[in-house]
Amino acid sequence: QVQLVESGGGLVQAGGSLRLSCAASGRTASSYAMGWFRQAPGKERELVSRISRSGTITYYADSVKGRFTISRDNAKNTVYLQMNSLKPEDTAVYYCAVDLLGGAGRRTSDYNYWGQGTQVTVSS
User: Fold this and answer.
1) CB 105 within 8 A of CB 57
2) What distance in Å separates the CA atoms of residue 75 and residue 61, rounded to the nearest whole number?
3) pLDDT tens column, 41-95
């Protein structure tokens, strides 16, 4: 079992920044790849970014490349998502998730445990 708790969401103006955190407990989350997803109202949950267990390999959706940075601190069992130059279209609930199997990790079904989500709202 892995428990994930996201924090750091909030309301920010366009162009602003937020840093999301995902604290893991239980099974050693540092042994697994992790991802950040988001889901806007009426839309499917989509992968925003993913990081390998070592932190050396990262993936970003085209929509966030150059603006978001994923990182992890395995000593703290925490994954971060630094979000800069935020746009109104970034508004969504953001979720972190753990991939126990280590596949491509592009789909929600590739992930085994999820946090409860944190709301990010970007005003224009």
Assistant:
1) no
2) 27
3) 999 999 999 999 999 999 999 999 999 999 999 999 999 999 999 999 999 999 9
